[in-house]
Amino acid sequence: MPAENAAVADHLDDDDYPAYTMGRAADVLGTTPAFLRAIGEAELITPLRSEGGHRRYSRRQLRVAARARELVVQGTPVEAACRIVTLEDRLGDALRLNEEMRRKLAEHGLDT
């Protein structure tokens, strides 16, 4: 496979590759560019910028934005929705780390 094709294949599998323009991201999420700007201002997601300065979003960022959108549709203010999503992510990370540590302890016979 030529190097150029390999690079394309890598981008197709990369959840962090900024493949979506703001307009396309808004269409995919069923929202507006203003919503994407608002969650960017709340620092929930930080889109990358193209050489021309346009916002570009990854699939991972779209999943985060979709969760925030769900909360906003349910009546949660944007700022609060962003905070909730951030805390949910932190909790998920902490639970995964806790489970990993428990497994390591169990492997060494140190579980309680």
Provide key terms for this protein.
112 residues; mainly alpha; Multidrug-efflux Transporter Regulator, Chain: A, Domain 2; 3-stranded antiparallel beta sheet
Question: What topology emerges from the helices and strands here?
Answer:
Elements: H1 3-13, E1 20-21, H2 22-29, H3 33-41, E2 48-49, E3 55-57, H4 59-73, H5 78-107
Helix pairs in contact: 4-5
Q: Specify the helix fraction band.
A: 55-70%
Backbone shape: flat
Tell me the β content: 5-15%
CATH class term: Mainly Alpha
The assigned structural class equals mainly alpha
CA(first)-CA(last) distance: 51 Å
Question: What is the count of DSSP helices, taking H or I runs of 4+ residues?
Answer: 5
**Unreliable stretches covering 5 or more consecutive residues:** none
Described by strand count, sense and barrel closure, the largest sheet is: 3 strands, antiparallel
Q: Using the 3D structure, state the CATH architecture.
A: Orthogonal Bundle
Domain HTH merR-type: 19-87
Protein name: MerR family transcriptional regulator
InterPro entries: DNA-bd_dom_put_sf (IPR009061), MerR-type_HTH_dom (IPR000551)
Could you explain the architecture of this structure?
Residues 19-87 form the HTH merR-type domain. It holds the Pfam family MerR_1. The chain is mainly alpha-helical and 112 residues long. The protein has a single domain, classed as Multidrug-efflux Transporter Regulator, Chain: A, Domain 2 (Orthogonal Bundle). 65% of the residues lie in helices and 6% in strands. It contains five helices and three strands; from the N terminus they run H-E-H-H-E-E-H-H. It has helices spanning 3-13, 22-29, 33-41, 59-73, 78-107; strands at residues 20-21, 48-49, 55-57. The protein has a three-stranded antiparallel sheet with strand order 1-3-2.
